[in-house]
Amino acid sequence: MEVTDKSPLLSNSSLDNSVFRSNAENEVSRVKVYMVTKLLLLAVLFERVTYYGILANLVMFCTNYLEYSSTEAVTVNLIFTGLAYFFPLIGGRIADTISGRFNMIYGGLLIYLIGMVLLPVVAFDYSTAFGLDNNGFQYGLPLAFKQGYFLFGLLLCSVGIGFYKANASPFGAQQVEPLGRNAVHSFFNWYYWFTRVGGCISCVVIVYIQQEVNFFLGYVIPTVVLVVALIFFLAPRNYYTEHKKGSVAGTVVGILWQATVQRFRLRKLSTERIRHFLDGAKLSKGGKFLDREVDHLKYVIKAFPVYATLIIFSTFTSQNTTTMLLQGERMNMSLGGYTIPVASLNAFTMASVALLIPILDLFVYPMLNRFNKGPTMLQRIGCGNLLGVLCLVYMGVLEIIRKNDIAANGGSMQSVGTIMYNSSGMSILWQIPQFVLCGIAEVFTVITALEFAYTESPVEMQGMTMGLNYLTTCLGHLLGSVLYVAVADITAKTGSPWLTDEINDGHLDWFAFLLAGILFINFIVFVIIARGYRYCCLGTQQPLIPRSRVDQPSKTFGESPIDL
Fold first, then answer.
1. How many CA atoms lie within 13 A of 375 on its CB side?
2. Out of 27, 122, 252, 346, which could bridge 150 as a Cys pair, Cβ 3.0 to 4.6 Å?
3. How far apart are CA 301 and CA 403, in angstroms?
4. What is the percentage of the chain residues whose pLDDT exceeds 70?
């Protein structure tokens, strides 16, 4: 029985005995794959509970307890997230060449845990617990110490998260590779599903505790949960399989150097003999490297423009924990006597992902594949970009309506944590559509980007390319931070500031429309790149798309940019 997209990764049919018979050389058993895959995905779920326990209310903690301005709090949020997606580049490099993926994940989780311990230390209310000292002064950390310890804790967390993230998904995909190409495709879907379920739990439970109880308990719980994630990860350690590591970076540098030398030596040769700059490093052209090694590097470099377009998309996704949160703080959070934690609306992003992935993986994609109409990876990424544009436009329109409501009715003072805000009478539930759109956009773009990085690179370079994929998220968040500060400074000089500490006095709507325009231009550039891209599918034993599509230029958008 062949494993198909219709057979989910975690179902019995995905592990049919015939699959194991046809892959007997891999010595994979039904019990082993079940145990390893499920425990690894549970570790992913609990780690995401911890991550979003930090991220979801980070802006609120920075403004309410560390006394940062709104602009500074947004900057801290974006830099933390950016670094968490920068360190995967280093973690992937180390795993590929020195430690292996298991050791890199293990070490990353330990560093992560050390950083997490510092957060409740900063959030603890020492004065309430211990009262006054003999001189009548309150016990506690000075504000500067709190800020320093907190930022150092965030730095350690970002290092640990980065080392973990670069290797968790490719390491998991390696465990299911013997089950076939569709099992790998399905794994990435379910991997992301578990990350979003973990995020949803955090945004409902942890966020409520942080806003309505206290941040100390709201940071202790994620710390304990991270310990649970570490236990789940280590439990099947004797059953993991892992590809051999090698010095891929040395090979890459060697090919580039050899190609440069050969370029000058062979520049008089006809273009038919040296069609690509790197071909000079091939043995068949007088170089020192196997033709296959050079071709693999060419495939990876060819994908760079696709990765570059993901940077702007990441700037868009960073808004759901920054500007969308600032907007939600100025809306009516009451619902039948219950106060809705502003950051909990991120649960709708997570829930939309958690609901959509099974629908696509079990029904939509298998049905389309029967008619050979299944969307390619680049088609899915482009669709996510368009949904992101729609989300930002909705956010801008909602901001206009919200401010008009305050202008017409005067608004009302509302307490969020320890700060009072002048809020619109509009319910915060009006933000739900933009969070849902953000989640759907992530399903099409972020998940597919993981699959793209894994399948469009050779096995020995997967750690590096997964790190490169996460680097685009890092650059997107850092770009978002730079853009936010730059727009705030430039517009302040015009006398009509867009971004102020009190957004009721600015034009957050114009900023949302600016981002929508930038993302749409990014989509147009992406279409141009995608139309000429050829798939190579080096990362799996078989290609994840039909061979007819591999051998031809990608028909990502048919005859027009909207032919999805």
1. 18
2. 122
3. 47
4. 78
